[in-house]
Amino acid sequence: MEDSFSGDEDYYYSDRDSLDGLENDEADLQWVPPKGSSTKVITRESLLAAQKEDLRRVMELLSLREHHARTLLIHYRWDVEKLLAVLVENGKESLFNEAGVTVIDDADPMLPLSSTVMCDICMEEVAGDKATKMDCGHCFCNDCWTEHFIVKINEGQSKRIRCMAHKCNAICDEAVVRNLVSKKHPNLAEKFERFLLESFIEDNKMVKWCPSTPHCGNAIRVEEVEVCEVECACGAQFCFSCLSEAHSPCSCSMWDLWAKKCRDESETVNWITVHTKPCPKCHKPVEKNGGCNLVSCICGQAFCWLCGGATGRDHTWSRIAGHSCGRYKEDKAKKTERAKRELYRYMHYHNRYKAHTDSFKLESKLKETVLEKVSISEERESRLRDFSWVTNGLYRLFRSRRVLSYSYPFAFYMFGEELFKDEMTDEEREIKQHLFEDQQQQLEANVEKLSKFLEEPFDQYPDDKVMEIRMQVINLSVITDTLCKKMYECIENDLLGCLQLGTHNIARYQSKGIERASELSTCWTSVNTTTDKRQRSDADTSGNVDWHFPFPSLFLFSAHCISVLQ
């Protein structure tokens, strides 16, 4: 049983799209896009630019080559601020040693073409042009280097390939890896390049792939690592922390437990425990469909419904030997009663969660109908010209309905014994539950009123009647928004804020809806930096590296510098 929004496209309703092109005179109700989005969409085209921007910052700050800067950033999970903090606290030498970066300014990577080199791996002498020397000073033949790189790439370690020398932690130059591997295995070189590029997302705690299905190919970058909900350019709304659908006011752990509970057979097992008895012969569950306590299984075995014992020579309704149906068995009775109580409690919360989820689905389809009513009302001769209150009310309905839907899984775990049994006494739990349920019921009542008024055929009503509906919708929109804010404040301060043994954070309530990430812009400038020149020069002298990338349409940046428009 799946009730997750991610399984249905209707659930990915864009809050911003619902109000496009519509205005409202009421400042409190008007949806205004944020001036500067704190989340960015990284597309396939802008992925390299985003990575290059972070690389550029580190390269300029520490005067490093690109592969050294990348090694540092991968080690610190692309967290530039953390890297700078370690630099200030421990110094450059400690920073480099911990990440496996070896920088030798006066090292000469060139090997005399006429000389020969003894490779300590294969123990053969090779010509100088057939060997490669790394920044750490270790030199081996190209064949051994190539085999080493191939093994590491196939093992998935291509982002941090270490030198082959014993106890050397230096990270190999990615340009050398790319050059040597591409000569024998071009496809593997592309795989290596792809790993380096995707490390910006997979190793970066500030960036995550959009979990949309089918995958849109976008990633989202946030300004701060916190529990938040974001909307991708494809319209998918999700929790940045756990990559599930947007689920506040549930915490990530609550939603994970709830989604699993709805998917697996745990509640089916509870129902079977409460309503059936196992056959003593074939052990299949049997449900009683009559009043008689002598029941028969489909396998032909008759047994006593009261105690579950098989009827026969010693246990019949005319003669009972050792029969104990009437004796009270405390443990078994408690277990059955507990299973029944837990089942009914789950059904209570699940039925209400499902009802609001279904209402959200149906109300999402109101958008076209409401816009059609607005269009008809604007065409007829009337003193009313502004109908933005309708779309603003519809948007507020969606937001409030969604909050209501997820408030029931939250309550199921908040006031149950699964997560917070030792956090509250029974008396404290009862007080907090009443406080929360009072607010939940107020929100529920006003959301239903708002839904009722928005479904009215106002395009057929006279102006006076429309004005009445308008005032009701505006007032209810303000009320539901205020009640949502109060519910979140109650959860954050009075419920989750008082926990001692565990931390359950939720995404903040946003009246304007889940923020839609803006696209990360890129621009191309024809500026060659000294660092770029030095990189290419170093690459050419260290094995005659060819600079190429697996996606020509994306990486045609020869003699260009990429910058990110913040």
UniProtKB/TrEMBL annotation:
<dbReference type="Pfam" id="PF19422">
    <property type="entry name" value="Ariadne"/>
</dbReference>
<dbReference type="Pfam" id="PF21235">
    <property type="entry name" value="UBA_ARI1"/>
</dbReference>
<dbReference type="InterPro" id="IPR044066">
    <property type="entry name" value="TRIAD_supradom"/>
</dbReference>
<comment type="function">
    <text>Might act as an E3 ubiquitin-protein ligase, or as part of E3 complex, which accepts ubiquitin from specific E2 ubiquitin-conjugating enzymes and then transfers it to substrates.</text>
</comment>
<dbReference type="GO" id="GO:0061630">
    <property type="term" value="F:ubiquitin protein ligase activity"/>
</dbReference>
<feature type="domain" description="RING-type">
    <location>
        <begin position="119"/>
        <end position="167"/>
    </location>
</feature>
<dbReference type="InterPro" id="IPR002867">
    <property type="entry name" value="IBR_dom"/>
</dbReference>
<dbReference type="GO" id="GO:0008270">
    <property type="term" value="F:zinc ion binding"/>
</dbReference>
<keyword id="KW-0677">Repeat</keyword>
<dbReference type="GO" id="GO:0016567">
    <property type="term" value="P:protein ubiquitination"/>
</dbReference>
<keyword id="KW-0808">Transferase</keyword>
<feature type="domain" description="RING-type">
    <location>
        <begin position="115"/>
        <end position="329"/>
    </location>
</feature>
<dbReference type="InterPro" id="IPR054694">
    <property type="entry name" value="Parkin-like_IBR"/>
</dbReference>
<dbReference type="InterPro" id="IPR031127">
    <property type="entry name" value="E3_UB_ligase_RBR"/>
</dbReference>
<dbReference type="InterPro" id="IPR013083">
    <property type="entry name" value="Znf_RING/FYVE/PHD"/>
</dbReference>
<dbReference type="InterPro" id="IPR045840">
    <property type="entry name" value="Ariadne"/>
</dbReference>
<keyword id="KW-0863">Zinc-finger</keyword>
<comment type="pathway">
    <text>Protein modification; protein ubiquitination.</text>
</comment>
<dbReference type="Pfam" id="PF22605">
    <property type="entry name" value="IBR_2"/>
</dbReference>
<comment type="similarity">
    <text>Belongs to the RBR family. Ariadne subfamily.</text>
</comment>
<dbReference type="Pfam" id="PF01485">
    <property type="entry name" value="IBR"/>
</dbReference>
<dbReference type="InterPro" id="IPR048962">
    <property type="entry name" value="ARIH1-like_UBL"/>
</dbReference>
<protein>
    <recommendedName>
        <fullName>RBR-type E3 ubiquitin transferase</fullName>
        <ecNumber>2.3.2.31</ecNumber>
    </recommendedName>
</protein>
<dbReference type="InterPro" id="IPR001841">
    <property type="entry name" value="Znf_RING"/>
</dbReference>
<keyword id="KW-0479">Metal-binding</keyword>
<keyword id="KW-0833">Ubl conjugation pathway</keyword>
<keyword id="KW-0862">Zinc</keyword>
